[in-house]
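Re: your question from the hallway

Yes, I did run it. Sequences:
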Amino acid sequence: MNCQSFRAIVYEIDQPGGVEASALDTALGHAQACTRCARQLHRTREVAAMLRALAFADEDQQASGRTEERLLDAFRTQTGRRLHWKTVAGWMAAAAALVLALGGGLLWRHASRTGWMVPGEPPDPAAAQVTAIAPAAGGSQAPSLLLGAGRPARPALDAAHGAPTSAAHRLLPVRENSADLNDFIPLPFADDDEPLGSAEVVRIRLSEADLGLLGLSVSEEAYTQPLTADVVIGEDGVARAIRFVQEPL
Amino acid sequence: MIAGDEHAFVALYRRRQGAIYRFALQMTGNPGLAEEITQEVFMTLIREMKAFDPARGTLGGFLYGICRNHVLRYVAEESPYVGFPETSSEGGNGFTEPAALSDLLSDLAEAETVERVRRAVLTLPPHHREAVVLCDLHEMSYEQAAGVLGCPVGTVRSRLHRARELLLAKLKRVAAAPTARADSAPRHIERSL
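Structure:
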Protein backbone atom coordinates (compact mmCIF):
# COMPACT_ATOMS: atom_id res chain seq x y z
CA MET A 1 0.00 0.00 0.00
CA ASN A 2 1.32 3.45 -0.87
CA CYS A 3 0.61 6.80 0.78
CA GLN A 4 -2.07 7.77 -1.74
CA SER A 5 -4.14 4.62 -1.22
CA PHE A 6 -3.64 4.98 2.53
CA ARG A 7 -5.09 8.50 2.47
CA ALA A 8 -8.05 7.23 0.48
CA ILE A 9 -9.12 5.02 3.38
CA VAL A 10 -7.66 6.81 6.40
CA TYR A 11 -11.06 8.13 7.50
CA GLU A 12 -12.60 4.68 7.19
CA ILE A 13 -10.05 2.89 9.32
CA ASP A 14 -11.84 3.46 12.60
CA GLN A 15 -15.33 3.13 11.13
CA PRO A 16 -16.95 -0.21 12.02
CA GLY A 17 -16.99 -2.17 8.79
CA GLY A 18 -15.41 0.76 6.95
CA VAL A 19 -12.44 -1.22 5.68
CA GLU A 20 -12.05 -4.95 5.10
CA ALA A 21 -9.92 -6.77 7.63
CA SER A 22 -7.10 -7.53 5.20
CA ALA A 23 -7.01 -3.92 3.91
CA LEU A 24 -7.05 -2.67 7.50
CA ASP A 25 -3.99 -4.75 8.41
CA THR A 26 -2.18 -3.51 5.32
CA ALA A 27 -3.08 0.12 6.10
CA LEU A 28 -1.96 -0.09 9.71
CA GLY A 29 1.24 -1.79 8.59
CA HIS A 30 1.85 1.07 6.17
CA ALA A 31 1.20 3.64 8.91
CA GLN A 32 3.86 1.97 11.06
CA ALA A 33 6.35 2.19 8.26
CA CYS A 34 5.47 5.73 7.05
CA THR A 35 5.81 8.57 9.53
CA ARG A 36 3.74 10.99 7.46
CA CYS A 37 0.83 8.58 7.14
CA ALA A 38 1.11 7.72 10.85
CA ARG A 39 0.77 11.44 11.62
CA GLN A 40 -2.22 11.63 9.26
CA LEU A 41 -3.89 8.74 11.04
CA HIS A 42 -3.18 10.36 14.40
CA ARG A 43 -4.74 13.68 13.32
CA THR A 44 -7.72 11.91 11.85
CA ARG A 45 -8.33 10.18 15.14
CA GLU A 46 -8.00 13.45 17.00
CA VAL A 47 -10.58 15.11 14.76
CA ALA A 48 -12.88 12.15 15.30
CA ALA A 49 -12.40 12.60 19.05
CA MET A 50 -13.20 16.30 18.76
CA LEU A 51 -16.38 15.52 16.89
CA ARG A 52 -17.37 12.99 19.53
CA ALA A 53 -16.74 15.66 22.14
CA LEU A 54 -18.99 18.05 20.26
CA ALA A 55 -21.67 15.38 19.97
CA PHE A 56 -21.35 14.70 23.69
CA ALA A 57 -21.56 18.41 24.53
CA ASP A 58 -24.71 18.76 22.45
CA GLU A 59 -26.30 15.60 23.76
CA ASP A 60 -28.66 17.41 26.10
CA GLN A 61 -29.55 20.20 23.70
CA GLN A 62 -33.23 20.34 22.96
CA ALA A 63 -35.98 22.72 22.05
CA SER A 64 -37.51 24.76 24.86
CA GLY A 65 -40.78 24.00 26.59
CA ARG A 66 -42.38 26.97 24.81
CA THR A 67 -42.01 25.18 21.51
CA GLU A 68 -43.79 22.15 22.92
CA GLU A 69 -46.61 24.36 24.20
CA ARG A 70 -46.99 26.10 20.87
CA LEU A 71 -47.01 22.79 19.04
CA LEU A 72 -49.55 21.36 21.44
CA ASP A 73 -51.82 24.34 20.82
CA ALA A 74 -51.40 23.89 17.10
CA PHE A 75 -52.12 20.18 17.41
CA ARG A 76 -55.31 20.86 19.36
CA THR A 77 -56.44 23.46 16.84
CA GLN A 78 -55.65 21.21 13.91
CA THR A 79 -57.36 18.13 15.33
CA GLY A 80 -60.29 20.29 16.45
CA ARG A 81 -60.62 21.65 12.95
CA ARG A 82 -60.35 18.16 11.55
CA LEU A 83 -63.04 16.92 13.94
CA HIS A 84 -65.21 19.91 13.02
CA TRP A 85 -64.94 19.06 9.35
CA LYS A 86 -65.60 15.42 10.13
CA THR A 87 -68.76 16.46 11.99
CA VAL A 88 -69.87 18.72 9.14
CA ALA A 89 -69.14 15.97 6.65
CA GLY A 90 -71.10 13.53 8.80
CA TRP A 91 -74.12 15.82 8.93
CA MET A 92 -73.91 16.43 5.21
CA ALA A 93 -73.75 12.70 4.56
CA ALA A 94 -76.74 12.14 6.84
CA ALA A 95 -78.69 14.90 5.06
CA ALA A 96 -77.81 13.43 1.68
CA ALA A 97 -78.89 9.98 2.85
CA LEU A 98 -82.19 11.45 4.10
CA VAL A 99 -82.83 13.21 0.80
CA LEU A 100 -82.04 10.02 -1.09
CA ALA A 101 -84.31 8.00 1.18
CA LEU A 102 -87.15 10.51 0.74
CA GLY A 103 -86.62 10.63 -3.00
CA GLY A 104 -86.49 6.85 -3.19
CA GLY A 105 -89.62 6.58 -1.09
CA LEU A 106 -91.51 9.03 -3.27
CA LEU A 107 -90.33 7.25 -6.40
CA TRP A 108 -91.36 3.92 -4.98
CA ARG A 109 -94.71 5.31 -3.99
CA HIS A 110 -95.20 6.75 -7.46
CA ALA A 111 -94.13 3.46 -9.01
CA SER A 112 -96.52 1.58 -6.73
CA ARG A 113 -99.39 3.81 -7.75
CA THR A 114 -98.74 3.69 -11.47
CA GLY A 115 -97.40 0.15 -11.69
CA TRP A 116 -94.31 1.49 -13.39
CA MET A 117 -91.76 -1.09 -14.38
CA VAL A 118 -88.67 -1.13 -16.46
CA PRO A 119 -89.65 -0.72 -20.13
CA GLY A 120 -89.28 -3.87 -22.11
CA GLU A 121 -89.52 -6.13 -19.08
CA PRO A 122 -91.65 -9.12 -20.01
CA PRO A 123 -94.98 -9.31 -18.26
CA ASP A 124 -95.29 -11.80 -15.51
CA PRO A 125 -98.32 -13.89 -16.19
CA ALA A 126 -98.50 -14.87 -12.55
CA ALA A 127 -98.68 -11.25 -11.47
CA ALA A 128 -102.33 -10.90 -12.33
CA GLN A 129 -104.68 -13.77 -12.29
CA VAL A 130 -108.21 -13.54 -13.44
CA THR A 131 -110.22 -15.91 -11.41
CA ALA A 132 -113.49 -15.34 -13.16
CA ILE A 133 -115.07 -13.20 -15.75
CA ALA A 134 -118.61 -12.26 -15.20
CA PRO A 135 -120.86 -10.04 -17.22
CA ALA A 136 -121.57 -6.76 -15.65
CA ALA A 137 -125.08 -5.89 -14.74
CA GLY A 138 -126.83 -4.54 -17.81
CA GLY A 139 -126.17 -6.03 -21.18
CA SER A 140 -124.58 -3.06 -22.75
CA GLN A 141 -121.84 -2.75 -20.15
CA ALA A 142 -118.48 -4.37 -20.38
CA PRO A 143 -118.02 -7.33 -18.10
CA SER A 144 -116.28 -6.75 -14.81
CA LEU A 145 -113.03 -8.60 -14.30
CA LEU A 146 -112.48 -10.06 -10.90
CA LEU A 147 -108.77 -9.85 -10.36
CA GLY A 148 -106.76 -12.01 -8.01
CA ALA A 149 -103.91 -10.90 -5.84
CA GLY A 150 -100.89 -9.26 -7.37
CA ARG A 151 -99.96 -6.17 -9.27
CA PRO A 152 -100.80 -5.70 -12.93
CA ALA A 153 -98.18 -7.22 -15.13
CA ARG A 154 -97.95 -4.34 -17.57
CA PRO A 155 -97.26 -0.68 -17.10
CA ALA A 156 -99.93 1.71 -16.13
CA LEU A 157 -101.34 3.58 -19.03
CA ASP A 158 -102.15 7.18 -18.59
CA ALA A 159 -104.93 8.37 -20.81
CA ALA A 160 -103.45 11.83 -20.83
CA HIS A 161 -100.59 10.54 -22.96
CA GLY A 162 -102.68 8.79 -25.55
CA ALA A 163 -104.78 9.79 -28.50
CA PRO A 164 -108.36 9.24 -27.34
CA THR A 165 -109.79 7.47 -30.34
CA SER A 166 -110.20 4.08 -28.78
CA ALA A 167 -109.15 2.33 -25.65
CA ALA A 168 -106.37 0.49 -27.44
CA HIS A 169 -105.00 3.51 -29.24
CA ARG A 170 -104.76 5.46 -26.03
CA LEU A 171 -102.03 3.05 -25.01
CA LEU A 172 -99.73 3.87 -27.87
CA PRO A 173 -97.60 6.74 -26.56
CA VAL A 174 -97.02 5.19 -23.22
CA ARG A 175 -95.75 1.67 -23.45
CA GLU A 176 -96.94 -0.04 -26.56
CA ASN A 177 -95.64 0.28 -30.06
CA SER A 178 -98.08 0.61 -32.88
CA ALA A 179 -97.69 -3.03 -33.96
CA ASP A 180 -98.68 -4.18 -30.51
CA LEU A 181 -101.59 -1.78 -30.43
CA ASN A 182 -102.98 -3.11 -33.65
CA ASP A 183 -103.30 -6.43 -31.92
CA PHE A 184 -105.77 -5.07 -29.37
CA ILE A 185 -109.37 -5.63 -30.22
CA PRO A 186 -111.81 -3.11 -28.75
CA LEU A 187 -114.46 -4.94 -26.81
CA PRO A 188 -118.01 -4.48 -28.04
CA PHE A 189 -119.22 -3.34 -24.66
CA ALA A 190 -116.53 -0.73 -24.22
CA ASP A 191 -117.53 2.88 -24.38
CA ASP A 192 -114.88 4.74 -26.37
CA ASP A 193 -116.06 8.08 -25.11
CA GLU A 194 -115.58 7.11 -21.51
CA PRO A 195 -112.26 8.56 -20.25
CA LEU A 196 -109.72 5.81 -19.77
CA GLY A 197 -108.00 7.42 -16.80
CA SER A 198 -105.14 5.38 -15.45
CA ALA A 199 -105.66 2.26 -17.48
CA GLU A 200 -103.85 -0.98 -16.90
CA VAL A 201 -103.08 -3.97 -19.03
CA VAL A 202 -103.38 -7.29 -17.31
CA ARG A 203 -102.61 -10.70 -18.60
CA ILE A 204 -105.30 -13.25 -17.97
CA ARG A 205 -106.03 -16.85 -18.70
CA LEU A 206 -109.53 -17.66 -19.69
CA SER A 207 -111.46 -20.33 -21.50
CA GLU A 208 -112.89 -19.80 -24.95
CA ALA A 209 -116.31 -20.00 -23.41
CA ASP A 210 -115.54 -16.80 -21.60
CA LEU A 211 -114.97 -15.01 -24.91
CA GLY A 212 -118.63 -15.22 -25.52
CA LEU A 213 -119.24 -13.24 -22.37
CA LEU A 214 -116.97 -10.55 -23.76
CA GLY A 215 -119.13 -10.39 -26.88
CA LEU A 216 -116.64 -12.17 -29.12
CA SER A 217 -117.47 -15.07 -31.43
CA VAL A 218 -116.20 -18.45 -30.28
CA SER A 219 -115.26 -21.53 -32.27
CA GLU A 220 -117.44 -24.40 -31.15
CA GLU A 221 -114.87 -27.13 -31.89
CA ALA A 222 -112.46 -25.95 -29.23
CA TYR A 223 -114.88 -24.54 -26.76
CA THR A 224 -112.91 -25.45 -23.68
CA GLN A 225 -109.49 -24.46 -24.98
CA PRO A 226 -107.66 -22.19 -22.47
CA LEU A 227 -106.38 -18.87 -23.77
CA THR A 228 -103.93 -16.23 -22.67
CA ALA A 229 -104.83 -12.63 -23.36
CA ASP A 230 -103.90 -9.08 -22.39
CA VAL A 231 -106.88 -7.01 -21.37
CA VAL A 232 -106.97 -3.23 -21.10
CA ILE A 233 -108.84 -2.26 -17.98
CA GLY A 234 -109.92 1.28 -17.45
CA GLU A 235 -109.73 3.16 -14.20
CA ASP A 236 -113.35 2.23 -13.56
CA GLY A 237 -112.40 -1.46 -13.68
CA VAL A 238 -114.20 -2.06 -16.98
CA ALA A 239 -112.41 -4.04 -19.68
CA ARG A 240 -111.95 -1.96 -22.85
CA ALA A 241 -109.87 -4.05 -25.24
CA ILE A 242 -108.28 -7.44 -25.52
CA ARG A 243 -105.22 -8.88 -27.21
CA PHE A 244 -104.69 -12.59 -27.60
CA VAL A 245 -101.29 -13.81 -26.77
CA GLN A 246 -102.20 -17.22 -27.98
CA GLU A 247 -104.72 -17.24 -30.82
CA PRO A 248 -107.75 -19.47 -30.35
CA LEU A 249 -107.69 -22.58 -32.45
CA MET B 1 -51.78 10.50 16.59
CA ILE B 2 -53.65 10.74 13.31
CA ALA B 3 -56.83 10.13 15.30
CA GLY B 4 -56.06 13.23 17.36
CA ASP B 5 -54.45 11.53 20.37
CA GLU B 6 -52.67 14.36 22.16
CA HIS B 7 -50.68 12.05 24.41
CA ALA B 8 -49.35 10.18 21.41
CA PHE B 9 -48.25 13.44 19.85
CA VAL B 10 -46.53 14.62 23.01
CA ALA B 11 -44.75 11.28 23.39
CA LEU B 12 -43.60 11.38 19.79
CA TYR B 13 -42.47 14.99 20.08
CA ARG B 14 -40.48 14.37 23.25
CA ARG B 15 -38.80 11.34 21.76
CA ARG B 16 -37.82 13.02 18.49
CA GLN B 17 -37.43 16.73 19.11
CA GLY B 18 -33.95 16.53 20.63
CA ALA B 19 -32.37 15.00 17.55
CA ILE B 20 -34.20 17.36 15.23
CA TYR B 21 -33.25 20.40 17.29
CA ARG B 22 -29.60 19.31 17.44
CA PHE B 23 -29.48 18.70 13.72
CA ALA B 24 -30.87 22.18 13.07
CA LEU B 25 -28.51 23.71 15.64
CA GLN B 26 -25.44 21.95 14.31
CA MET B 27 -26.34 22.87 10.75
CA THR B 28 -27.16 26.52 11.42
CA GLY B 29 -25.27 27.36 14.60
CA ASN B 30 -28.22 29.47 15.67
CA PRO B 31 -30.24 28.25 18.71
CA GLY B 32 -33.19 30.53 17.97
CA LEU B 33 -33.36 29.40 14.38
CA ALA B 34 -32.95 25.76 15.44
CA GLU B 35 -35.92 26.21 17.74
CA GLU B 36 -37.94 27.76 14.95
CA ILE B 37 -37.02 25.00 12.53
CA THR B 38 -37.88 22.32 15.09
CA GLN B 39 -41.27 23.90 15.56
CA GLU B 40 -41.81 24.09 11.83
CA VAL B 41 -40.85 20.43 11.38
CA PHE B 42 -43.47 19.28 13.86
CA MET B 43 -46.01 21.75 12.52
CA THR B 44 -45.52 20.13 9.13
CA LEU B 45 -46.04 16.76 10.76
CA ILE B 46 -49.27 17.97 12.37
CA ARG B 47 -50.56 19.43 9.12
CA GLU B 48 -49.50 16.57 6.89
CA MET B 49 -49.57 13.50 9.07
CA LYS B 50 -50.84 11.41 6.22
CA ALA B 51 -47.88 12.41 4.07
CA PHE B 52 -45.72 10.03 6.07
CA ASP B 53 -45.60 6.63 4.41
CA PRO B 54 -43.89 3.95 6.54
CA ALA B 55 -43.21 1.98 3.37
CA ARG B 56 -40.89 4.75 2.19
CA GLY B 57 -38.78 5.08 5.31
CA THR B 58 -38.71 5.60 9.04
CA LEU B 59 -40.45 8.43 10.86
CA GLY B 60 -37.04 9.63 12.01
CA GLY B 61 -35.86 9.84 8.43
CA PHE B 62 -39.06 11.65 7.47
CA LEU B 63 -38.55 14.27 10.20
CA TYR B 64 -34.87 14.68 9.39
CA GLY B 65 -35.84 15.17 5.75
CA ILE B 66 -38.29 17.97 6.60
CA CYS B 67 -35.72 19.54 8.92
CA ARG B 68 -33.06 19.36 6.24
CA ASN B 69 -35.31 21.15 3.76
CA HIS B 70 -35.82 24.01 6.23
CA VAL B 71 -32.14 24.15 7.08
CA LEU B 72 -31.04 24.24 3.45
CA ARG B 73 -33.55 27.02 2.78
CA TYR B 74 -31.95 29.01 5.57
CA VAL B 75 -28.44 28.14 4.44
CA ALA B 76 -29.23 29.28 0.91
CA GLU B 77 -30.26 32.67 2.27
CA GLU B 78 -27.36 33.14 4.66
CA SER B 79 -24.17 35.06 3.90
CA PRO B 80 -21.74 33.23 1.63
CA TYR B 81 -18.98 33.88 4.15
CA VAL B 82 -18.88 32.39 7.58
CA GLY B 83 -16.83 34.03 10.28
CA PHE B 84 -14.01 31.93 11.58
CA PRO B 85 -12.27 34.00 14.23
CA GLU B 86 -9.03 33.30 15.97
CA THR B 87 -7.42 31.71 12.96
CA SER B 88 -4.12 32.48 11.35
CA SER B 89 -2.22 31.53 8.24
CA GLU B 90 -0.85 28.02 8.02
CA GLY B 91 2.69 26.96 8.58
CA GLY B 92 4.94 26.31 5.63
CA ASN B 93 4.66 22.53 5.36
CA GLY B 94 0.90 22.34 5.97
CA PHE B 95 1.23 20.12 9.00
CA THR B 96 0.96 21.08 12.65
CA GLU B 97 3.10 19.50 15.28
CA PRO B 98 1.27 16.58 16.92
CA ALA B 99 2.01 18.12 20.29
CA ALA B 100 -0.26 21.10 19.50
CA LEU B 101 -3.15 18.81 18.60
CA SER B 102 -2.53 16.74 21.67
CA ASP B 103 -2.82 19.84 23.78
CA LEU B 104 -6.03 20.65 21.98
CA LEU B 105 -7.30 17.17 22.67
CA SER B 106 -6.56 17.60 26.33
CA ASP B 107 -8.70 20.74 26.30
CA LEU B 108 -11.71 19.04 24.72
CA ALA B 109 -13.60 19.26 27.94
CA GLU B 110 -13.33 23.00 27.66
CA ALA B 111 -16.40 24.59 26.20
CA GLU B 112 -14.24 26.89 24.15
CA THR B 113 -12.68 24.02 22.27
CA VAL B 114 -16.04 22.47 21.61
CA GLU B 115 -17.19 25.78 20.23
CA ARG B 116 -14.19 25.87 17.91
CA VAL B 117 -15.09 22.46 16.56
CA ARG B 118 -18.66 23.62 16.17
CA ARG B 119 -17.52 26.66 14.22
CA ALA B 120 -15.29 24.52 12.06
CA VAL B 121 -18.26 22.31 11.24
CA LEU B 122 -20.34 25.38 10.44
CA THR B 123 -17.79 26.58 7.91
CA LEU B 124 -18.14 23.41 5.87
CA PRO B 125 -20.18 23.60 2.65
CA PRO B 126 -23.78 22.58 3.42
CA HIS B 127 -23.70 19.18 1.72
CA HIS B 128 -20.45 18.26 3.45
CA ARG B 129 -21.67 19.71 6.72
CA GLU B 130 -24.81 17.59 6.77
CA ALA B 131 -22.77 14.46 6.08
CA VAL B 132 -20.55 15.20 9.09
CA VAL B 133 -23.48 16.13 11.31
CA LEU B 134 -25.44 13.00 10.47
CA CYS B 135 -22.60 10.48 10.45
CA ASP B 136 -20.22 11.88 13.07
CA LEU B 137 -22.47 13.83 15.42
CA HIS B 138 -25.68 11.81 15.11
CA GLU B 139 -23.85 8.52 14.62
CA MET B 140 -25.91 7.45 11.63
CA SER B 141 -24.68 4.73 9.32
CA TYR B 142 -23.89 5.65 5.73
CA GLU B 143 -27.11 3.94 4.68
CA GLN B 144 -29.23 5.90 7.14
CA ALA B 145 -27.59 9.17 6.12
CA ALA B 146 -28.14 8.31 2.47
CA GLY B 147 -31.83 7.79 3.23
CA VAL B 148 -32.11 11.21 4.87
CA LEU B 149 -30.07 13.01 2.22
CA GLY B 150 -31.72 11.19 -0.65
CA CYS B 151 -28.48 10.23 -2.33
CA PRO B 152 -26.45 7.05 -2.87
CA VAL B 153 -24.28 5.63 -0.09
CA GLY B 154 -21.18 6.25 -2.20
CA THR B 155 -22.03 9.95 -2.34
CA VAL B 156 -22.34 10.10 1.44
CA ARG B 157 -18.99 8.35 1.77
CA SER B 158 -17.19 10.73 -0.58
CA ARG B 159 -18.81 13.83 0.96
CA LEU B 160 -17.84 12.66 4.40
CA HIS B 161 -14.29 11.98 3.31
CA ARG B 162 -13.96 15.45 1.84
CA ALA B 163 -15.66 17.02 4.85
CA ARG B 164 -13.23 15.40 7.26
CA GLU B 165 -10.29 16.59 5.19
CA LEU B 166 -11.65 20.13 5.31
CA LEU B 167 -12.34 19.85 8.99
CA LEU B 168 -8.85 18.59 9.67
CA ALA B 169 -7.38 21.54 7.79
CA LYS B 170 -9.60 24.02 9.63
CA LEU B 171 -8.89 22.55 13.04
CA LYS B 172 -5.18 22.56 12.32
CA ARG B 173 -5.45 26.28 11.89
CA VAL B 174 -7.40 26.59 15.09
CA ALA B 175 -4.76 24.59 16.89
CA ALA B 176 -2.01 26.73 15.38
CA ALA B 177 -3.77 29.96 16.38
CA PRO B 178 -2.25 30.33 19.88
CA THR B 179 1.23 30.12 18.37
CA ALA B 180 0.46 32.57 15.62
CA ARG B 181 2.04 36.00 15.54
CA ALA B 182 0.28 38.47 17.78
CA ASP B 183 -0.18 40.98 15.01
CA SER B 184 -1.90 38.60 12.60
CA ALA B 185 -5.37 39.96 11.89
CA PRO B 186 -8.40 37.63 12.01
CA ARG B 187 -9.67 36.76 8.59
CA HIS B 188 -12.70 35.23 7.06
CA ILE B 189 -12.43 31.93 5.37
CA GLU B 190 -14.55 31.18 2.40
CA ARG B 191 -16.89 28.37 3.21
CA SER B 192 -16.01 26.42 0.10
CA LEU B 193 -12.43 25.79 1.21
